[in-house]
Amino acid sequence: MSNSYNWPVLPNSDSKIVTIVVDGVEAKVPEGTNLVEALETIGIETPHFCYHPDLPVAGNCRQCMVETEGPRGMALAIACYTPVRAGMKVATDKSSEKVRTARKAVMEFQLANHPLDCPICDKAGECTLQENYMAADRQPSRMREEVGKQYKGSPDHRHVDSKGQDRGGKHVDLGPAVVLDEERCILCDRCVRFMRDVAGSEQLYIASRGDHSFIATFPDQPLDHEYDLNVTDVCPVGALTGKHFRFQQRVWLLAKTETIDPTDGLGANITVEHHDGHAWRIMPRRNPHVNKSWIANSSRLAYRRLSEDRLTAGLFGRSEVPLAQAVSRLGELVRGARKVALVASGHLTLEDNAAILAWAQILGPRAEVFGGSWLWVGAPDGIARSGDPVPNRRGLKLLGIPDSLDELRARVGEFDVLVVVGNDLWTANPSKAATLEKIPERIALSSWSDATVRASTLGVGVRAWAEVRGTMVNVQGRIQIVNAAPILPSPDLEPTWQVLSTAGRLGWTSELDAFRFAQSRIPSLVGLTYRTIGPQGRLLEGAEA
Amino acid sequence: MATLTVTQNFGKGAADIAVYKSLGGYSSLGPRLFDLSQFELIDLVTRSGLRGRGGAGFPTGMKWSFVPRNTPKPVYLVVNADEGEPGTFKDHVLMLEDPHRLIEGMIACGWALGVRTAYIYVRGEFLKAIETLNAALKQAYDAGLLGENIQGSGYSLDIYVHRGAGAYICGEETALINSLEGYKGQPRLKPPFPAVSGAWASPTCVNNVETLMALPWILEHGPAAYQALGTPKSGGTKVFSVSGDVVRPGVYEIPLGTPLLEFLESSEWCQGVVGTLKGVIPGGSSSPVLTAEESAKANMDYESLASLKSMLGSGAVIAFNDTRSAVGMLASLTRFYAHESCGQCTPCREGTGYADRILKAIVRGEGRDGDLDTMLDLAANFSYTTICPLAIADAWPIENFIGKFRSEFDALLASNAGHAESRVTSDFRPGAFW
Predict the structure, then answer these.
(1) Cα-Cα-Cα-Cα dihedral of B335, B336, B340, B341, to 10°?
(2) A310 vs A47, A303, A448, CA distance in Å?
(3) Residue B59 burial (CB count, 10 A)
(4) A426: part of which helix (H) or strand (E)?
(5) Which of these CATH numbers, 3.10.20.740, 3.40.50.20, 3.30.420.40, 2.120.10.80, describes A2-112?
(6) Which CATH architecture has domain A310-539?
(7) Within chain B, which residue ranges are assigned CATH 3.40.50.11540?
(8) B231-321: which CATH topology?
(9) Cα–Cα distance measured from residue B73 to residue B84, given in angstroms and rounded to the nearest whole number
(10) Which residues pair with A27 in a beta bridge?
(11) Cβ atoms of B137 and B143 closer than 8 Å
């Protein structure tokens, strides 16, 4: 199908900059890119529904129309399928009545069969239809009751409502994760293109024709894919919603914290969206170099674990102790040790691991740092997962911490204290980890009451990935920022580096101290700050190797 | 009797290859065709003035010249036999009566464009035509007229019949190609045009059945003779399918430029109008309707109808007398387009359905003042804003039926006791809130 060939040309660093005339004003934009993207670079927003920078162009919503100069003078064209040519003339809604009329007309058509159920719609507040209505339309409906609506939807889902009106399908269960409300659908085709051209598994299609067409799965085939929840993001209206977030929160209440996916080595960019001290959902954050606009379902649902089974205090044997007491006990045990094994973790930030190194440096020959993971490493899926479940493995390597868990097992007799920092060894490989139980004092720093904490003599609760600030290096060698959302399950919890700094008397007061220590170990970090790393991360020099 | 270039074998059993050959068929498959170079053949077709007979009337020679030469990709010929326009039934009859002429025309076109594989995309409902075509193809293969090395010319061509699934939109060439490839029949974004990137992203020429069937005659008698049959700008003859209130509806081939009323009233053709003529739809349901006065001025060629702001289209003439309701006709047409809109572009998908529902309300006697203006506004808004011209094909009937027969619409609106009630159901004032 033609649509599959039409991937949009996006601006990049190699784009040639040319001059075009927009609304009578000269502007410099990247050549060859489509007008939606080109106008975006000069701050002109073009309303659209079906266009998505990471999907093939379908050109079916017709909302993005502008006027461009053609062989027969200025004519309407869709901006998403019009490439920039040097010297071209473009008129947007600012200067062209024709464009304003066309966009207004398309809005009327979109709304002709759309229900007015925003008060109960999960998309309200982040709905493209609402936004474009305010931007381009703002007209009262001309629809009369006698004229009626064409309710979209499969005949199987038809029902008669309490007023005796024929209604389209409500909450069609598409599969384990996604629900469809057919009457809200504006048939932009994004979900179909996502499944076909990105997920590579054609599970959705548009059945039937005209205004009676509807999104459907194939007979007896549910929508079931590791990436299927992305269709709820690309859906510009509330037609596709995820079961995990349906009727949970109004989206305008949610504050967003930009961070990265903690479950995979690619570090897909995400936002944790929270309200009232609670994380309600994770959304993908677009990063063309990392995950485009996509995240896997398992990454998206990672927020659930933030409120499950948390270790919010110290655990001394079986009995809970206040955190401060557990931290000072940690310091005493390590300082009193003959030889201590510190196990660093690729699940933690560079800053946390820097604290381990700093403490080991103070302890001198009495301490040795080990690292690595026993988790199974899969293959990259080409979308938003590298297959490596350890998000900061590359960072550990840069800090000079080797993959040495098996060496630790071999030399287990040399140590009398083991400190496992944020590395759930007993879950990853219980039989290998059992060897480590030969070490008499086992201390675990963890955010969860996991198997490692249960196997330890002292457990210390620390903040989880969404509650700390720091940096991680993904499999590409890109350093990315992890940010803290205000969703602590207990106000006493401290970041791992802080706990280590207190126990080891490092005297660090912020993660910047930790970052500075990491810079002393990683030359390519020198000169970087959290600001210069920025929201899209930054490829470290020599990282390709 | 006018000269016939396409339908001369009607009623003679030419679906059989022996009969077709005895009537002079397949005589072009020799030096007459294969001595011509590709350029000479395209030039010859250009000089004949042949224009696409499917509806748009694009000059055939020019269309062929857009297909690139010496491409590493195969060039495909696709015959558009997805005849779905209401009132049009000429291709169906042409394929039933004279399938070998189509095959001969396809070989000529294939030679001109360097085609190795050609498809005939036939509307799914034309089961008889598909059977006829397949039987004719088998005969042609058996006679060595298709396949490897046709008649020792060194040229090879294979033809396949593809059965469509019965969607009007698949008559649009890019939707047809999508359907041929096995996808949902929805028009593609252009550019690229099919001549450059069509079926399987290869150069593709899509021609109507009748266009290709004119080629054997042009090859036999020369382009000048064909050109001379019509008007200076519209060469040749055209096959019309006539329906509605005429004494003898049917498929007729007439020279381009014949006056419309002469065509309807001639004893040779339609033999007169039943009742008093109220109007004529001259070129398929999407062409703007002509009133009786306009019909008197119309000649059946591209330019004359264009000057009356209508079009020759596919050559489906629907004549109707004064017993027919213009409202009913428009409602019926709009219902067709709302049903056949492929649903891809918003304005067409929602607009045709919206117009359909308004018209249904009017027909039910629930029309109100302002409904006609809403309809006209909708029609203007879904014209020229979509990928393909289906929306325009609905907009033109709406604009012309309402424009030319407005009094009938107004009378029906006035019959609703509540016709003057406010149309807008709420007094919504955006400024008051935002």
Answers:
(1) -50
(2) 44, 13, 4
(3) 17
(4) helix A425-428
(5) 3.10.20.740
(6) 3-Layer(aba) Sandwich (3.40)
(7) 17-226
(8) Ubiquitin-like (UB roll) (3.10.20)
(9) 31
(10) A20
(11) no
Whole-complex ipTM: 0.91
Q: In chain B, pLDDT over 70 holds for what percent of residues?
A: 97
**pLDDT digit string, tens, across residues B368-409:** 888 999 999 999 999 999 999 999 999 999 999 999 999 999
B233-261 mean pLDDT: 93
Contact B361 A146 (CB under 8 A): yes
What is the residue-wise DSSP string for B16-47? SHHHHHHTTTTTTTTHHHHTS-HHHHHHHHHH
Which residues does chain A have within 8 Å of residue B428's beta carbon, measured at their own beta carbons? 140-141
Q: Parse chain A into domains and list their residue ranges.
A: 2-112, 116-157+167-253, 310-539
Q: For residue B221, give the H/E element and its range.
A: helix B215-221
pTM score, whole prediction: 0.93
- Give the pLDDT confidence of A265-280 residue by residue, as tens digits: 999 999 999 999 999 9
Give the pLDDT confidence score for residue A545 in this predicted structure: 47
Q: Which residue has the higher pLDDT, A193 or B166?
A: A193
> Are A116-157+167-253 and A310-539 in the same CATH fold?
no
CA angle B135, B136, B140 (to 5 degrees): 120
Any A CB within 8 A of B160 CB? no
d(CA B332, CA B128): 27
Q: Which residues pair with A179 in a beta bridge?
A: A173, A241
The strand pair at A278-284 and A314-316 is best described as: unpaired
A-chain residues near B387 (CB < 8 A): 59-60
Q: Which residue has the tokens 């990137």?
A: B197
pLDDT at residue A163, rounded to an integer: 57
Nearest to B42 by CA among B21, B20, B68: B68
Find chain B residues with C-beta within 8 A of A106's C-beta. 346-347, 385
Q: Which of A319, A344, A311, A345 is nearest to A493 (CA)?
A: A311
The answer for residues whose C-beta is within 8 angstroms of residue B35's C-beta and 6 or more apart is: none
Residue pointed to by tokens 């590298």:
A386
CB contacts of A62 in chain B (<8 Å) are 345-347, 385-386
Q: What is the rounded distance in angstroms from the CA atom of residue B133 to the CA atom of residue B127?
A: 10
Q: Mean pLDDT, to the nearest integer, of A429-444? A: 95
If you classify domain B326-414 with CATH, what class do you get?
mainly alpha
At residue B432, the pLDDT reads 43
Q: Which overall architecture, per CATH, does domain B17-226 show?
A: 3-Layer(aba) Sandwich (3.40)
A441-446 and A269-275 beta bridge pairing: unpaired
CATH value of A116-157+167-253 in 1.10.3720.10, 3.40.190.120, 3.30.450.20, 3.30.70.20: 3.30.70.20
User: Helix, strand, or coil here: B107?
Assistant: helix
Would you call A166 helix, strand, or coil by DSSP?
strand
Domain with CATH 3.10.20.600 in chain B: 231-321
Residues 51-90 of A with CB under 8 A from B: 57-63, 65, 76, 81
Residue range(s) in chain B whose domain bears CATH number 1.20.1440.230: 326-414
Average pLDDT over residues A517-522: 96
